Amino acid sequence: MDFIANPGSCDLVGRADELQIILEYIRSGSGTWIVGDAGLGKSALAEAALKELKAEVRPFRVHGSAALAGIPYGALAPLLTQLSPLESDSPIAFMRTLIGSLRAGNDPASSAPALLIVDDAHELDEASADLILQVVASREVRVLLLSRPGHAMDAKVFGPAVDRLLARYQLRPLTKNGVHELCQQVFGGRVLLSTSAAVERVSGGNPLLIFTLIAEARRGGTVVNSNGVWILREGCLLPGKHSIELTKRQLSRLSPGDREVLELVALAEPLMISALFELGRHSSIDALYEAHLIAIGEPPMPLVRPSYPLLGEILRGLVPAGRKLRLRQLLEAGASAGSLTGEALVRHTSWLLDCGVSVPNDRLLQSAAVANNLADSAFALRAASAVDQPRMASAACVQKARAYVHRGEYRSAQECLKDLSAADLDLESMNYAAHLAIRLQSPGAGDAQAIRPFSSDREVDLLQLHREVSEGKYTGVTERLRRHLDGALSDDDERSTILALTLLGEVYASTGQAARGADVTGNALRRLKDNPQRFILDHEWVLIRHVVSLIRAGRWSQIAAVLNRYTESASDSFAYWGGAIDLAMGVVQMCEGKYREASETLSGAVEGLRIHDVENLRPVALGLAAFTASVVGERVSWQRFSMEFDSIGDKGNQQSQLMGRGFILAARVVQSADPDAVAQLHSLADHAEARGWVSAEMDLRVLALGVGQHSRFARVKELASLVDGAGAALVAGFCRAVDQHDADQLVRIAHQAEDIGYVPLALLCLQEALNLAGSDQNRLREQNIRQLLEQLHQKGQSFHRGVSSPKLTRKERDIAVLVGRGKRNAEVALELGLSVRTVEGHVYRIFEKLGISRRESINEDHLRAEG
Predict the structure, then answer these.
(1) SS (H, E, C) 799-822
(2) Is the CB of residue 436 less than 8 Å from the CB of residue 448?
(3) Which of these ranges, 1-5, 333-337, 486-490, 582-586, has the smallest mean pLDDT?
(4) The pTM of the whole model exceeds 0.70
(5) 700, 702, 708, 713: CA torsion to nearest 10
(6) Is the pLDDT of residue 223 over 70?
(7) Among 82, 107, 431, 444, which is most buried by a count of CB atoms within 10 Å?
(8) Which among 723, 722, 703, 721 is positioned nearest to 712, based on CA atoms?
(9) What is the rounded distance in angstroms from the CA atom of residue 569 to the CA atom of residue 370?
(10) Helices (H), 511-653
């Protein structure tokens, strides 16, 4: 059965602030005027306001319409039925009759004020608009006007008059978070973050378009449900018949001249505003901007484009080929195609192909390369496939391979790289092939040595270093990378500089210098952003390494900022990044102690990476998902992730495999205290130590501490002195406090860890402090620490208390069962044949293990987890 978008079936999403503002305006006096584009949810907001107001007002609704716009008082006719024919020429009579109808209304006995809601107020006839203004001025009735921007009635009546009487509120598109929430509500389940970000980008945050896009995507199979997670399977969302019809209605009232300018903007996107000025289209630019149909960039080179991507995509599809040709001729009379660069070059080449104009092969290749830089894989494939000159065929195949990588079609990419002839490739294409093949682990053309005849020794060696770093071979790599970086900077070789910085940052992050690594990869990302068209390096390749460095450095706010900037600008490359966004956010949530949120986010990441995973991140995602599922007690989920991890074999690089396996083993320890899993976890850490993977070893050793295994405590202390970053400093402080048996210092470190977002470490500190207080028999200190533990557990909302606590013994569980049933210590002692003193000692240990401070806190969840 087809899914039909039904906005009315969903709760109001992402409008809580707007709703409160509107309610305040209505309750405080005359009312408000909501202005917003079609589909933004003005009517839904009005309905939500009425639901909140309930009996506070008596609502009346009228509608403006194009059909009634020429009839005086046409919109208000339902409320003017008591008007005498003899009074039809008296404005005062109209006013008196309208107010009388609103006073009598549907409940004459009610003292609540009338609220007149005017839908599509921009379509009102002038007489109705004037009468409504008089009603507002009289303060007899409260008014809620709903209108679209950029219409004649705004300037003619509402603009100067209503602004003096009503508070005008401009309704904006939904934010990124609002779109994600709405997507989850419409889909009825979890949605990958990259999927909702793609919806937000294409729709511009318009709720009605979001409903329509989701309906079309589900029908067309563009989004799929994988184990309860909705994922964008292809790189982009394409418009269907319903979204096209919505857009047609939106454009139907444009004048021919305004429509022509909007078509020009869509076809040439982005277009310099000066080109439109040269055509004398100043008034159309103003009208389209006021109607929120175009967006104008900042000086000194303001670019004009459709207000949201879907509008441009639909417009380009609606313009017939003959009209496209005429519009091209109109625009090119004053513009040189040879001077076009970037997105404008891609759009112009697409325009030529649509018109059936022959495009030179070198222009096609250039356009394909730029399209790939912009992650527009669909057009890159189109342009590269149109190349028909044999000597350029190999270069076209390289561009196809890039496009296929962006789309997640890795086998197709590898096929394109087969049997390439170095003699047929220019230097740039050979470099593309080399980078792609190394990332895809493809032989032949991608071997770094294959480009030696066409490239510098520096570039060849950097590509070889790329392969060594990906295999975790760090011996001597740092010095070689520094040497290459110095040379590249000296020669102003920006491409080699970015490659060397990215690899150097990756090595730093993996060898215990995460803060330094984050600074270096951040430098690479900034350089790439400043020169996006000049380099063969994918933005995502650099970005992933930067995010990993930020995670290791514990810079949580920077991670969110970096990912937000990416999702605001990316398009087709979501297929490349996919579940990696959710993976990064899930790690942050886990480190902040939000285990249940992290479990949901990471399970989504696994599903996304099952479809698109060019960086082989799925092993570590599976491990993290299994661990967080075990922490929150989701046994079925953690077993499923563990089994899938075992089934994928040696997929991914060795460190990804190692960390994934470490979290799988930690999950087993949490679930069953398996001694074999403990031994294997330490063995993995020993392997990381032997390979020089300091950061991975540190993560594994601390993970072992977190699940209650302290046997390699000395090595943790040593590592804490070798690793940089705030997290390592806290671990070092934890080790010193444990050595000194200083419970108070552990509590102070716990507070520091919580403040900077290392909640698992804070829990570990408090648990150790509780153990020390218990051994000192300091009951007051024990009680205070238990309260802190309880508070921290509640903040995390979902942390399962078995993570850092040993399981109850059989006798402790028997006692816990009786205590949980409300029995006193003496009653428990009598029933189990123990002394009261023995029972008291067991009760204290039970409290310690469960992380609670009161008998009443023992519940069935604890006992089930311990059973």
Answers:
(1) CCCCCCCCCCCHHHHHHHHHHHCC
(2) no
(3) 1-5
(4) yes
(5) 100
(6) yes
(7) 431
(8) 703
(9) 15
(10) 514-530, 539-553, 556-569, 574-577, 580-591, 595-611, 618-631, 635-647
Q: Do 371 and 379 form a contact (C-beta atoms < 8 A)? A: yes
The answer, yes or no, to whether residue 803 has pLDDT greater than 50, is no
The answer to whether residues 375 and 570 touch, using CB atoms and an 8 Å cutoff, is: yes
Chain-centroid distance of CA 516 in Å reads: 26
Q: Taking all residues of the chain, what is their mean pLDDT, rounded to a whole number?
A: 81
CB 166 within 8 A of CB 132: no
Q: In Å, how far are 175, 267, 288, 317, 562 from 311, measured between CA atoms?
A: 18, 11, 13, 10, 27
- List, in sequence order, every residue forming a beta bridge with 116; answer none if it has no partner: 60, 143
421-465 pLDDT, tens digit per residue, is 766 777 778 777 777 776 665 443 344 454 444 455 676 777 778
Q: In this structure, what DSSP letter does residue 113 have?
A: P
- pLDDT score of 865 more than 60: no
d(CA 49, CA 169): 14
The pair of structure tokens assigned to 132 is 């409504």
Write the CA distances from 540 to 195, 253, 536, integer angstroms.
Answer: 16, 42, 12
pLDDT band at 574 (very low <50, low <70, confident <90, very high): low
- Structure tokens of 385? 């496939």
234 Ramachandran zone, left/alpha/beta (phi>0; psi -120 to 50): beta
The answer to whether 406 touches 572, Cβ cutoff 8 Å, is yes
Q: What angle do CA 333, 334, 335 make, to 5 degrees?
A: 105
Instruction: Report the Cα 319 to chain-centroid distance in Å.
Output: 33
3-state secondary structure 774-791: HHCCCHHHHHHHHHHHHH
Burial 404-428 (b: 16+ CB within 10 A, else e): bbbbbbbeebbebbeebeeeebeee
Q: How far is 124 from 127, CA to CA, in rounded Å?
A: 8
**Which residue type, as a one-letter code, is found at position 646?**
D
Torsion angle defined by CA atoms of residues 129, 134, 136 and 138, in that order, rounded to the nearest 10 degrees? -170
CA 48 vs CA 15, 18, 44, 174, 718: distances in Å: 10, 11, 6, 16, 60
Q: What is the pLDDT of residues 260-301, one digit of tens each?
A: 999 988 888 888 888 888 888 888 888 888 878 888 888 777
Output the CA angle 640-644-649, nearest 5 degrees: 160
If one counts every other C-beta atom within 10 angstroms of the C-beta of residue 241, the result is 9
Can you tell me the distance from the alpha carbon of 657 to that of 620, in angstroms, rounded to the nearest whole number?
6
Closest Cα partner for 591 from 463, 723, 760?
A: 760
What is the b/e burial string over 256-278, where b = at least 16 CB atoms within 10 angstroms of the residue's CB?
A: eebbbbbbbbbbbbbbbbebbee
